[in-house]
Request: fold
Amino acid sequence: MLRVLLVEDEPDVALVAATVLEEVGYHVTVATDGHEGLEIALQEQPELIVTDFMMPCLSGLEMIERLREAGFDRPIILTTAIPEDHLPRHPPYDAYLAKPYGTRKLLALVDAFRAQSGVG
Amino acid sequence: MLEKFSTGIEGLDQLTDGGFIRGSAYIVQGPPGAGKTIMANQFCYAHVRAGGRALYMTLLAESSSRMLNYVSQMGFFEGSALPDAMQYISGYGVLEREGLPGLLKLVQHELKRHRATAMVLDGTFVAQSVASEQEFRAFIHTLQGVAGMADAVLVMLTHQNRDASCPEHTMVDGWIEMSDEIQGFRAFRTIQVRKHRGAAILPGKHRLRITQAGIDVFPRAEIAMDPNPPALTGTDRVATGHRGLDGLLEGGLPAASGTLLVGPTGSGKTTLGLHFLSRSHAREPGLMLGFYETPAHIREKARSLGLDLDTPIEAGALELSWLPPAENIVDEVVRDIVNRARARNVKRVFIDGLVAIRDSLVITSRMPYVINALSMQLGAIGATVVYTSEIPELELGHAMMPSDELSAMVDNVLLLNTGRRDHAFRRHLSVIKLRDSDFDPRTHEFHIGPAGIAFGPDPRVGSSGKAA
Reply:
């Protein structure tokens, strides 16, 4: 079972996204800010991270940068309402998902990474 | 000297005497849909555009990305400010897990982390719902201290309808109330600065409008305009565009005065106004605001009366503008006229149809004060203003004075009367009031012909009323 870490400070988004991913068989852990996300990611080494950008304590982008510095090389999806052209040109994440997003888009993206990872 | 941050809304800056004071905390209260979120976002982006840094923290459970998606469609949105100078974060989770003490720590931490000089806390009522009244009071008090220490402006949004005696209102530095009101079938939004420490506010309710560009606030004309415009003095006269009438007025209308043309429909008020405008030229530019006839109609009408508006219009010396008469915000209309007149140094203003202004007012008793303010502001830039106002048809021969209300609005009053006598429809003109001047008190019959207004009976009926 693919383990997904969902880092999201907006409770309704976290609830819906986690429920949808769990319904199709993913194992989801939720962190509510970048700091908590960093700790869980380093400890649990999830196969995939889906993270918001603008969050308290540590932003999603800062969290990703620290994870990459720490050697975390698994795929990361950044979700944000910030237009993509305002984000770094050479991003440390693997995919961008514009917020607000539909659950089908999220599932399609996560499924694509699952297929790449080879984890069932 | 207190440092102030613009609210990003010109009219609100006027109401608050320059904007939010740095290091102060404000409550913005109003029901859902009153415009609080847009106002707060508009403030943040204006602040960022001015070089500041802003943080928008929501305590609401619903997604702020949805809100941001909507805000991104608005004219004030600045995508390049995200995510550095402007950030949106949620405090809901922390509030749920750690209560008010956790939220306070979070606010402190985030203000510091983002080096924010402005912060919005959206959904302050949620914080109250998880605490006792005493705890909430302490929270607001500490939050205000946090804003002061961070030298930032803190704007707290709440939809609760709490009254003036509530502790949070006594503690904060400012309190702004936004509302959505209904009068009959008419809906309108208002804003009121209830409290603002260290600033001279424009009190009472003021109208606001929300468009794709954002919020626009229109301070009430009678209190927003310069209370001490230059005194209207001097004996200069401005030609009415009709030589005979100038003779009755000892040379014309007193310069920089306000004149009311009153009369029933068809009495020649608009025609006389067009005479006045036809004298516009480069050194005396003109401006017309009409409500019932479009500029194309007005130009056609002038041509049929032998009055040349085309030449000054084409030379840029005359501007005709038109507003449909339905539900305008009068304070916006007044601001617009004054701004247009200032921009072109206009000396001749003709406003055709005061009834459209009166009918747009939510409180019609404001009418004389609004028109007085408009005349004073236009007079201050040296503009002479002519208004028209319709009254019911009068019986010829009966003297008629406009009401005190009408009379008080303006310096000069001309009555244009109509009626039937000797089997003919006739028009008469009388000067009722002329500022600090003598005038010909007689009533003069006139008619409207191919050269506009002409004194004397219509040649087709002669003085007896029978066909000449």
Observations:
- Residues 92-114 of chain B form the longest helix (23 residues).
- Chain B has a mean pLDDT of 90.
- Chain B is about 35% helix and 25% strand.
- The first strand of chain B starts at residue 4 and ends at 5.
